[in-house]
Amino acid sequence: MKEKILSNWRFKLISLLVGYVVWMLLVNISNPEVVRTKTVPLNVLNGSVLTRAGKTYSLQNAETVTISYQVRTRDAYKIQADDFHASVDLENLYDITGAVPVTVEVVGNRDLISGTPTARPGVVRVATENVQNKTFALDTHEDGEPREGYEVGSITLSADAVKVSGPESEVGRISSVGISIPTSDATESFSGKASVMYYDANGNAISLSDERLTVEPKEVNYEVEMLRGKSLTLRFQTSGEPASGFNLTGIESTVRAIPVTSSDSALLNKTTELSIPASALNIEGAKEDKTFQLDLSSYLPSGISATGNTNISVTVKITATTERNFPLSANNGIALRGAKAQYRYTLTPETVAVAVRGLSTDLQNMNAASLGAYLEVGSLGEGAHLVPLHLTLPKGITATAVPEVTVTVSLPEAETKQSSESSSESATAGTTAESSSAEPRSTERQSGESGSTTATTAAATERSTGESSSNSTEEANP
């Protein structure tokens, strides 16, 4: 077999080369059509149709498509991906399935392409979602600690808020927006520019790569004032109560501390904070956030003066409250204070409803035990008593409806049963004794019916005789 393969190898090699040359000549002469493919990007037309409807869109796994076309063999090398334009027109979007057909257009070397090019896939699915526009207050996050003896004073930003726009699913992940300011080892006031960052509910920075998400402005300029020396921390108090159905949820200030100086070092050393009196922040009847403009110099102790700007803005946050009802019973939330072991306590009704008002976030985390409900029963004796229900509510929670409860005090069932059994035994014993004494009386009555008159007379005569003899004997023997 090996000899047959290797024999006349020169002639076999020549025949192979001749066959290749003949094939090349035939191909060049006939110039047949062949099918070729190119990968091109997919363009979107009329996206504004969805934008005007308050929606955004994304192409599902179809950023590019493959174009199949026919071309003569000798012209195949001339065709490039730029010769085709693939697109989807969102005006043709089928709402039920979210499908839209792919259109292919030849924009170059049209005379070299035979037939109509086709795209794979020929239909693309488009996912749509509502657009959410939300404005966030701009927070500042200090990165690092200043050098010892220095503190960050006021921070001035070129924008107080930013507007974020994008798909609801992405915007919903954002809890707050802010910038990070490098304050590590800082000693002097400085300024700069920082990109806006997104933060989750835990204050951690999150990265959102969806191109449909936009923020305006993207960068914010900042100016940081560094303070040297003593700074007094601000402490705020409020007066008055918000309107019914509203709660105070926080106090925000443009500065957290104020730099001060004094010729009295002892006074300066013992003064650590500046307390703003409650009269300066009156929120009586407030139904929304209330902002106050204060001059801190008027609240400084005598002998201490401020070294910087003393005009600040303070905002008291007012939030609407909601109401929630809690069902309570002796087995669920109501404690009996002063209860005595020898008594049994019954509540009427067995279950009562208590209505409380507070912030929705606080109410969601509460249960029956959170109300600290109890009844004072230590001084109650047997019988029914109308007793007020007491509550020990968490801070920020108020009661709007607290019912009174009827408490019935009685002896336990075991003692009552024992007492009943004792009474029953006594009654039974008495009945038995009466029955025993009644039997001889009945016999006598029955005997007397046959000769009652005679027996009775004889007995009476005998008693009379005995009595006379006895009397005579006593008189005879004084």
Set down the secondary structure blueprint.
Elements: H1 2-6, H2 9-30, E1 33-45, H3 48-52, E2 55-59, E3 64-72, E4 84-89, E5 99-106, E6 113-120, E7 123-143, E8 150-157, E9 161-167, H4 168-171, E10 176-182, E11 190-195, E12 197-199, E13 205-206, E14 214-216, E15 219-228, E16 231-236, E17 246-253, E18 257-261, H5 265-270, E19 273-276, E20 290-295, E21 305-306, E22 311-320, E23 322-329, E24 334-337, E25 344-348, E26 351-358, H6 360-364, E27 373-376, E28 383-388, E29 398-401, E30 404-410, H7 413-476
Parallel strand pairs: 1-4, 7-10, 16-19, 24-27
Antiparallel strand pairs: 1-3, 2-7, 3-6, 4-5, 5-7, 7-9, 8-15, 9-14, 10-12, 11-15, 12-13, 16-18, 17-22, 18-21, 20-22, 23-26, 25-30, 26-29, 28-30
